[in-house]
Each structure stands twice: as C-alpha cells, then as structure tokens.
Amino acid sequence: MEMFDLTIIWAGIIGFGLMMYVLMDGFDLGLGILYPFAPDEDARDVMMNSVAPVWDGNETWLVLAGAGLLGAFPLVYSVFLPALYIGVFLMLAGLIFRGVAFEFRFKSRRNRRWWNRAFCWGSGVAAFAQGAVVGAYIQGFHVENFAFAGGAFDWLTPFSVLTGFGLMAGYALLGATWLILKSEGHIQEWAYRITPLLLALVLGVFGIISIWTPFVNPVVWERWFGHLQLIWVFPALALLSAFMVYRSVKRRDEGIPFVATIGIYVFTYLGLIVSKWPIIVPPNYTLWDAASAPESQLFLLIGVLFVIPIILTYTAWTYWVFRGKVRVGEGYH
C-alpha cells in the first residue's frame, strides 16, 4: 500500500494553481472590464499602471495548472480540449489582445483609444470564456469510451452563458476592490461607489447560478440535498465575506474589501470542488480514472516541488517591490 496517493497530491497542486490564477489574474481582467466606465483617462492610466508590473507573472499559474493537467490527468485533455476548443480559443485570444494592449497603449498617442478597446474587449472575452468553460464543466460532457462524443458548441448553453457573465461580474468586483487598495483621490472614490453595485450584481447572478446548478447536474443535486453535510458551510462563508466587503466599503477601509472579495472566490471555489468531488471529467470519470501512471506522476512531482516555491518567491517579491499607491503620472512606461 502506498504511503501517499499521488493522484490526490496532483489534484491539490492543480487546484491550487487554478485558484491562484483566478485570484491573481482576476483583478487585472476585472480592471479591463471596468475600463470603459472609468471617470477619465487619468483613471485608466492608474488602472493599467497598478497591474502592469505583475499581470504577466500572474498568468504563470495558468501555465502551471495547464501543464500539470496534461502530465497528471491526460484524460482531462483528451475530453476537455475537443469539447471546449472554441471556448479555450476565445480565452487565449482575449488574453493575447489584453497583453498587446498593455505594451502598446503607453507608446501610442494617436491610437490610444483603440488600445483601450483592445484592453477592454480582450479582458471581457477572456473572462466570459473562462466562466463559460466553468459552466460547461458543471453541466458535464457527452463522453463515450473515454472520448468526447458531442458537438463543437455543446459547451455554449444558457447556463454556461450565465456563468460566463457571472465570472465577468466577479472579476469586475475583484478589480474594483484592487483599485481601492492601489489608488487614491477621485479614482479611489469612484471605486468605492461602484463596489456595492458590483457586489449586488455578483450576489444576484451567483444566486441564480446556485439555484440552477442542481438541475443541470444530478451529482450536485445528490451532494447538496441527498443528506445533510457540511457543504453548506462554504456558501455561508462566502456570504459572510460578501457582507465584509459591503461593511468595509462603507467604513472606507482600503485593504479589507479586496481580501474579503478573495474570500468570496475561495469559498465558492471550495464549494464547487466539494460538490463535484471526486469527479474530474463529468459526468462520471473520477480523478483516478483520468490519472496518468504513478511513475509519470512521481517524475513530474519532483520537478514541480522545485518550481512552485520559486514561483511563490518571485511573485511575493514582485508584489512587495511594487507595493503602495499608484498615482497619476507615475508608473510603467
């Protein structure tokens, strides 16, 4: 009998990588979604400058999670990519447009408005595609003999469209609370004003998704209502985090709104994991069904155990170096 279950370890590593990506890339995608509504061009400068030093490093976690899935759970790739080709393409296209806009907006004067639009639309499309992919995962795929047997647009349903817009709203909330932390003056006041509105939108959309989810996936229905479990602790903690966001904004706190918004994401994410566990390829393939050979998992694990501390170290160092407020006229050029 093995002392450690490598499949569980890898599930934890990939789950951690995905959560880090959602949190760390989520706020800069959220700023892009909020871009058209900014009060002026100075505010847009501050919004972009607040994430310019860190946005590309944030996406390291997406690469780590994707590479880990390919190596540790090859069945996920063989099913998810054919099922989600279009959604994944839209996400990558959005991230590319957003990344190009980062570099060219500061250099261009005559065409700056077009790079503003590229930043906005790239962020919005990437966020929507990520949310739609999550919705498709919740509702499941048509799988036969360990292969996807559905159509190219099976992922695009009313439920996945709702989850796509829901994640856009959630990222916008994360971006607004990040801006509270990093800005000052009229820009910070604008962020304070829009945060309660975004919080109400997020709670409304996520409430509809929560009611709808058990009806699109019988496994979730059984997990939620089959018998009493501690699963309801997670939505309760998410609602508590939402209340902390609202209260801290009213008190004009600067750091707590962002931390509490992270809490909403973490507890919602944990609730989703518990609702589906141990299913990794819906409707019924478990982690162990999708896992690669133990020898492959162990070989990859040795490398990852070196890589993750390095990523955490340089990420923490970057955020420490660029801590503090971003002011008008200062920042990345």
UniProtKB/TrEMBL annotation:
The record's GO CC annotations read: cytochrome complex; plasma membrane
State whether keyword Transmembrane applies: yes
Its membrane topology: Multi-pass membrane protein
Q: Which keywords appear in this protein's UniProt record, sorted alphabetically?
A: Cell membrane, Membrane, Transmembrane, Transmembrane helix
> Pfam family of this protein, just one?
Cyt_bd_oxida_II
Q: Where, per UniProt, does this protein localize?
A: Cell membrane
Q: Where are the transmembrane segments?
A: 7-24, 75-97, 118-139, 159-181, 190-212, 224-246, 258-279, 299-322
Q: Which domain of life is it from?
A: Bacteria
According to its UniProt record, where is this protein mainly located?
membrane
Example of a GO MF term: electron transfer activity
A GO BP entry is: aerobic electron transport chain
Recorded family membership? Belongs to the cytochrome ubiquinol oxidase subunit 2 family.
By its UniProt entry, which PANTHER family does this protein fall under?
CYTOCHROME BD2 SUBUNIT II
Name of this protein:
Cytochrome bd-I ubiquinol oxidase subunit 2 apoprotein
